[in-house]
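Supplementary Data S3. Sequence and structure tokens for construct A.
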Amino acid sequence: MAHFALVGPPDARRPRLGRPVAGSRTSAAAGGVVLLLPDGEPVSGRGASLRAHAAMLPLGRTLVRAGRSEGLVAHVVRYRVRGWNGADANLAEDASWAVAEAVRRYGDVPVCLVGHGLGARAALRAAGHGAVGAVLGLAPWLPEDDVAAEPEAVRQLVGRRVLLVHGTNDARTDPELSFRFAQRAKKANRDTCRFEVHSDGHALRQYADEVQALAADFVLGALFARPVARPVTDAMAAPPPLGLRMPLAAGFGGAPRRL
């Protein structure tokens, strides 16, 4: 197992929240916080990826626009390193730090963790903090079943609203593994559902408008008790496997339909 000493300039080797995503309210008016956790790599001691950070900004801006009336603030978390790195679980550690920092900065406001790829795994791991009310995992990177290792934990999700979204053609992270995880999570926490994006890949670009609309619907419903779309309600209520293989329809949330 590779281990990496976090050496280098101090500012480069500390996790950071960075600036609020454009359009976020000031701290005095914050009503809720979204922490966006970028994708990473299974093993790496390199610094955080600027490309992965930038990839989270469009979703962050969408969420901030949709939640402006409630005072939503969003940050893209900057990791110390881009690698998960086995038992070190560096990305999960940085996600947990980010939740604590958001509470320190904004006070007693609800927090939603939104992660992509390995960032989704970090979001799921860090969900046990008392401030976290919801988790959205996009194309989550989850480990293969290994009889020699403990399965990925789900008890920390109890009491949270959890949504996983996965493209059926994802060649980087196996959609079947997120389905199996969702099955276990649903047994521990009824407020768990999973949507499948037919023929889309890891970046979820083909149906980006629908994915962003689904994310906004879920996040604002979870943080501010807004009514959610019927497909989300149905997915939460449906028994497995129906609520864990809910298709994301073209045009969801008013997104342009593709011919």
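Construct B, processed identically:
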Amino acid sequence: MSVLRKILAGSIALPLAIGLGATAHAQAKAAPATKPDADALAALNKMGAALRALTAFTITADVTTEQVLENGQKLQYGGDVRIEAQRPGAFKISTKSERQEREIYYDGKSLTVFAPTIGYYASVPAPSTIGATLDYVSDKYGVEVPLADLFSLGVDPALTAKIQSGFDVGPATVDGKKCEHYAFRQKEADWQVWISSDGPALPCKMVVTTTQDPAQPQYTAVMKWESSAPPQAAYTFNPPANAHRITLADAKTGSAK
């Protein structure tokens, strides 16, 4: 399950877009719930429709993740994410951060996680659609795909019922692009999204703040979109000659397959 879907379902985890987590602290007191603004919810629905309309797309994103140490001190890490996808069943995701590099391949039959710097990879059988695969590898192997929210936003309208409050902050500019800025509050997390005002209502920027942690670590992604992607063959992983195959451990049993 992707991070924003976890937020909306009431099970928050800081996004692992560049392989970093946050140390948990005592849960913060929840703010009083208020009714979300109808226009803000309508904007989310419009964005969901724009995302569903894309059959082939490429996203490049600058991401920032905050890690909270045991003593409450924050560390911040930057990174890049590139997603190339063909619906309903193919994607390639490349991530580079200050600490690691990863590539994730999904061709409609299997999902492979590859660490090119050290030459190790792991492959597992996968369902035939992107959505089912994201849920499967998250639940079974604990693999969180970077920016997986973008594959699921707008697919399940019932998730918006979990939003406690939401409002239109106002117009803004993100990387030279005109956007409208919206802020939402959900149990254990606040999140913001900047939606393009010109052309398709695609997200330009997202920020998630984990409010269950008193240090309130944030995850930020600034995105650029292209309505094209490589052909199907690009999503099948072909291991380099010097690569070594390893296994992924089951997140629940700890056994490797």
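The first strand starts at residue 56 and ends at 68. The first helix runs from residue 3 to 9.
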